[in-house]
Every structure is written in C-alpha cells, then in structure tokens.
Specification:
8-stranded parallel β-sheet, about 240 residues, about 35% strand, 12-stranded parallel β-sheet, globular, alpha/beta
C-alpha cells in the first residue's frame, strides 16, 4: 500500500507538470500561429502567380516622371506600357504573354476570395485615418478613405488585415499607413470594389486588388502591390517595392 501511495503521488505531480507545460506553450504561440497571431482568425489571401508582380493591370500601365519600380510588372489583356523610361524598372515586364495571362486569372481568384470572407467582419465607414486597428477583417459597404490622420496597423509578423471596400479607396496628401508591432506589408490586403487613388506623397502599405483602376499621385510610395483586374495602373514619380 505504501508503494502504491508513493506511485500515485509521483503520477499526480507528473500530470500537474504536464498541464503547466501545456498552458505555457499555449500562451507562447506568438509568430508560430499559422493564422494571424492576433486572434482575428483570418488566413492570408493566396495570390498565387499574381503575387510575383508589384504592378499588374488589365488595360494599360502608364508612368509619368522618374518612378522607380522594384519587381515585375504585368499587363493582360492590354498591350500598352508607357513611361519606362524615364521610369526605372527593376524587374521583368510581361505584356499579354502566358505569364501575365495566368497572373490575371490568379488575381481574379484572389480578389473573389478576399471579397467573400465572412469570418467576424468589423464594420468601417468613411475616414479611418487617425485610428489604430488590430488584425482582422474590416468591411465597408461604400467607400473608404485615409484622411485627417494616419492609419496604424498594430500586430505581430503573422498578423493579417483584410479590408473589403465596396466602392473606392482614397488617401489624401501626405497620409501614411504605419505598421507597428512587427506587422508585415505582405499580410495587408485591400480589396477595392471600384478604383483606388493614393494622394500626393502618401506612404502606403499592402496589396491593393482593385476591380477597376489604381492611380498613384506624385511622390506617393508603396510597399506592396498594385493589382488592377480590368482597368489600368497610373504612376506619377512614385517608388514601389514588392514586400518580402
């Protein structure tokens, strides 16, 4: 009996240690979380081959001034790419070829995936400038703008933001999208129902997937992607870098 009691005491201590270890591991999940690490339950949007491009458009790609584009650009089914030079292209150009055509198909799939997300949407409307947003799915039933203040996205390196915008996306001059807490531009997605316009000297982060067109005004910079399904992409002395 004494041996049995001793064994029971050891077994109880072992189970307690195992339980404490499990709780400790659960509390330290951090960046190993395959979702966003921020509790919103959102998975990343699979861009497939569309993710290979910093600029991808349907009708035209037009540049004015000395834009500096780091990454590949693609156009399908259009054939007009203008303004390089004076624009500088640090990547490969695909114009209505097999690669560009496949990328456009993948863009449509990604666009529809982002637009169809329904897990715990948070309603937003009008101006979201001046706010700090945690990871999650944000839904606007009309247009969305960043004005009268900068937008901060706060989360770890796995955190994911998806913005569903029924109409237009607009930023006013000098506005910024700021990433904090280790947040990564590759995990920010803007699904735009019509067209997007980035104001003069805007500093923007994330992948814009617009149904129609995308315009960057003079001096605006981007860490992300400009992906326009049907219309064109217009650049005006901008700096674009595809996120890592």
């Amino acid at each position: 009996m004494r041996i049995l009691k001793h064994f029971t005491k050891i077994l109880g201590s072992t189970m307690l240690l195992a339980l404490l270890f499990t709780v400790l591991i659960a509390g330290c999940g951090g960046d190993n979380n395959p979702l966003d690490g921020g509790g919103s339950g959102q998975q990343s949007v699979n861009l497939a081959s569309a993710g290979d491009y910093v600029v991808l458009a349907g009708s035209t790609i037009a540049n004015t001034g000395t834009s500096n584009v780091t990454g590949d650009i693609g156009l399908s089914p259009g054939t007009s790419v203008g303004g390089f030079p004076p624009g500088i292209m640090n990547g490969t150009q695909h114009v209505n070829d097999v690669d560009a055509n496949n990328a456009k198909l993948d863009l449509t799939t990604a666009y529809n995936n982002a637009a169809g997300r329904t897990v715990a949407p948070i309603s937003v409307a009008g101006n979201i400038g001046g706010r700090t947003l945690a990871p999650g799915l944000y839904k606007s039933t009309s247009s969305l703008e960043i004005s009268s203040g900068d937008l901060t996205l706060n989360g770890n390196s796995n955190a994911i933001w998806i913005f569903q915008i029924a109409s237009t996306l607009t930023t006013t001059a000098g506005r910024k999208v700021i990433l904090s807490g280790g947040a990564n531009a590759k995990n920010v997605y803007w699904q735009v129902g019509t067209s997007a316009t980035l104001g003069t000297t805007t500093v923007f982060k994330g992948t814009i997937m617009a149904d129609q067109s995308i315009t960057m005004n003079t001096g605006a910079t981007l860490e992300g992607r400009l992906l326009a399904r049907i219309g064109g992409v217009t650049l005006n002395g901008n700096t674009l870098v595809k996120p890592n």
